[in-house]
Write a structure and sequence with these properties.
The complex is a heterodimer of chains A (225) and B (401).
Chain A lengths: L2 E10 L7 E11 L4 E5 L6 H8 L7 E6 L2 E2 L5 H11 E4 L11 H6 L9 H14 L15 H13 L5 E5 L7 H16 L3 E5 L3 H4 L6 E6 L2 E3 L2
Parallel strand pairs in A: 3-8, 3-9, 6-7, 7-8
Antiparallel strand pairs in A: 1-2, 1-4, 4-5, 9-10
Chain B lengths: L2 H23 L1 H36 L5 E7 L2 E3 L1 E2 L2 H5 L5 E14 L4 E8 L14 E4 L9 E4 L1 H6 L7 E5 L5 E10 L4 H4 L2 E5 H8 L5 E2 L1 E6 L5 H11 L3 E5 H39 L3 H12 L4 H32 L7 H4 L17 H27 L10
Parallel strand pairs in B: 5-10, 7-9
Antiparallel strand pairs in B: 1-2, 1-12, 1-13, 3-11, 4-5, 4-12, 6-9, 7-10, 8-9
Classes of the chains: A alpha/beta (225), B alpha+beta (401).
Chain lengths: 225, 401
């Protein structure tokens, strides 16, 4: 299993008056090269689960192993280093910095890795060509269309060739055509051996044939129908 | 270069590149900070340059003043000193020469300006011949040259002498005494000669109506400059009613005057700097929603807190470095080409005729370090330290609910 969660719980502001239990007793395994959808309404805990899988923070209790590394008690710095090597993120609304050019946005994850400018440009150019947006390389990201923005976000998630791609509500602000296009790209990535986890309550996503498994999250727990 | 060193260098260059692009994206904000910071450094550097240049100039000019000056005091005020006192000094070993001098202020009611008038016995002064080197043209008036004067550079304009070389001043009985200009002081000596009119002793006595046998002061020249203090003490013992001023004392007084003025100005400017640093701290402590979002995205994308702090550090280094270059260059231009016009009322003279100085600023390594210590270091501290709080924005705030 590339992703292995066992009895994972997450409590925000533990011990304080505003304590919130976001996840309880999550058991989840995701095999390498598979595509899993985390489905559930807003506030159900999907993003928290994604953040744990994405090594943003460790669980409050339980065991979480991502790409062979146990997250519990891993200091923040090592979580970041593990995230760099393992996880590619695609955010809700894509979280592209609009003042930067498309090329600069895509190469952002490479800057703290000490990758030289020439190599950065080369890697980004390959991805831009792969997604058919190489003509937009020097455009400010704030000036491109929604579909192009989506491909920029995917290219950024792939720039460091991480084995796991996490997407948080990627189609929430896209029309049906763009949502389908997004899922086709995800399918290609899956076929290329990437492990894809998508948090979404969009039927275009969870009903897509490339999805191997849909996990429903409700009130911080996996809901078994 | 080792692989680790190459990695660290590339990483810092990448972060520097991002800091530059970040400053460019917020160019209006960056430009305003740069201009305000540059202005603060400009004021501090100008002040430092002017103070140093004036102190240097005063030191150079005062090097040629008499070693000891004697003035007669009565009821705490200066009055004429009898020429006969020269005889009482004759027995003091080590005195080379005693030269009388008459000086005073002449108030020009038309131009509402004070001129300094000095009657000198140039032929008796040990450095009499060398005094001509302080002149841009002409020679100093000799004892036989009645009605001749050498003037400072501002007097030409004040007396409206363009195209003519004669002028007249009123005696105390309101009769006019005429002078022919036979020389003009070099502008290098402006700090002391700008409002000066020099004539021979007899003309000065006539102009001020000072009775024969009295002068304003006696200038004592000594054979061995290391003996100044000893000889001054002997003179004090021999002439108890006389105030004895040594050259080192006069130099100290000038230094103290410039020191006090520059200190006062520095306090005002440092207050401005402190206000700027507090503002920078305040701005660096708060984050706009866009900035919070950007930090969260960078962290999710694998940037460490230290990387984000490094961006802030490089931004501050670039802003403060540019502000230093701009501020110091502008200060140099202001002092050299603008004659330090902003600080002249604070730093120079008490006369209405302010010297039209041509200063050559001296900015030693120590002065540059001092300016950097008072500007760049507080700015770096004020922007990077609070950035720590900003850089700890949780990465998950970039994710949805």
């Amino acid at each position: 299993m590339l992703i292995e969660l066992s009895g994972v719980s997450k409590t925000y502001n533990q011990g304080r008056a505003n304590e919130v239990r976001a996840l309880s007793g999550i058991d989840l395994g995701v095999e390498q090269g598979s595509m899993v959808c985390l489905k559930g309404p807003s506030g159900s805990g999907k993003s928290t689960l994604l953040a744990i899988i994405g090594c943003i923070f460790p669980p409050t209790s339980g065991r979480a192993a991502i790409a062979g590394r146990q997250l519990a008690r891993l200091p923040d710095r090592f979580l970041t280093l593990h995230r760099r090597e393992t996880i590619g993120f695609i955010f809700q609304r894509f979280n592209i910095l609009p003042e930067l050019t498309v090329l600069e946005n895509i190469t952002l994850p490479l800057l703290p890795l000490g990758v030289a400018p020439k190599e950065r440009r080369q890697r980004a150019q390959e991805l831009l060509e792969r997604f058919g947006i190489s003509h937009r390389a020097q455009f400010p990201a704030g000036q491109i269309s929604g579909g192009e923005l989506q491909r920029v976000a995917i290219a950024r998630a792939l720039i460091n060739n991480q084995p796991i791609i996490l997407a948080d509500e990627p189609t929430a602000h896209l029309d049906t055509n763009l949502s389908r296009e997004f899922m086709e790209i995800m399918q290609q990535l899956k076929e290329a051996g990437k492990t894809v986890v998508i948090a979404s309550h969009d039927p275009v996503v969870f009903a897509h044939p490339a999805i191997d498994r849909t996990v429903t999250i409700q009130d911080g727990r996996i809901h078994v129908p | 270069m080792t692989a680790m060193a190459r990695y660290n260098l590339e990483k810092q260059l990448n972060i520097l590149e991002y800091a530059l692009s970040s400053l460019w994206r917020r160019r209006m904000k960056s430009l305003s900070v740069l201009l305000v910071f540059g202005a603060v450094i400009f004021l501090l550097a100008s002040f430092q340059m002017v103070t140093q240049a004036l102190s240097d100039k005063a030191r150079q000019v005062l090097a040629h003043t008499p070693e000891i000056t004697l003035q007669k005091m009565s009821a705490g005020r200066q009055e004429g000193i009898p020429l006969a006192y020269r005889d009482k000094l004759a027995g003091i070993f080590g005195i080379r020469r005693v030269v009388p001098r008459i000086w005073g202020y002449y108030f020009d009611e038309v131009r509402l300006a004070n001129y300094t008038v000095m009657g000198m016995a140039v032929d008796e002064m040990p450095e009499g011949a060398r005094l001509d080197t302080a002149l841009a043209r002409g020679t100093m008036p000799g004892p036989a040259e009645q009605g001749r004067a050498v003037i400072g550079s501002s007097i030409t304009n004040a007396l409206d002498l363009a195209g003519r070389d004669t002028f007249s001043l009123f005696r105390p009985d309101l009769s006019l005494k005429s002078f022919v200009v036979i020389g003009e002081f070099s502008r290098d000596t402006d700090i002391l000669t700008n409002d000066l009119i020099v004539m021979n002793l007899a003309d000065a006595r006539d102009l001020f109506g000072i009775p024969g046998g009295l002068v304003s002061d006696l200038c004592v020249y000594v054979a061995n400059p290391t003996e100044i203090e000893t000889i001054a003490k002997k003179i004090s013992d021999a002439l108890p009613s006389v105030r004895v001023l040594t050259r080192p004392q006069i130099q100290k007084t000038y230094q103290a005057v410039f020191g006090w003025r520059s200190g006062f100005g520095s306090i005002c400017l440092l207050s401005a700097l402190a206000a700027f640093v507090i503002l920078a701290w305040d701005k660096a402590s708060g984050l706009s929603p866009e900035e919070r979002r950007e930090i969260a995205i960078l962290k999710v994308l694998g940037w460490e807190t230290s990387d984000i702090l490094a961006v802030r550090f490089w931004e501050s280094v670039i802003v403060s470095g540019l502000a230093c270059i701009i501020g110091m260059t502008a200060a140099y231009v202001h002092v050299v080409y603008g004659a330090a016009s902003l600080f002249r009322p604070v730093l120079m003279g008490w006369s209405v005729l302010k010297p039209d100085l041509h200063l050559l600023p001296r900015l030693a390594g120590g002065d540059i370090l001092l300016i950097l210590a008072f500007t760049v270091i507080p700015y770096l501290a004020a922007t990077v330290i609070p950035a720590w709080r900003s850089a700890t924005v949780p990465a998950d705030s970039a994710l949805g609910g």
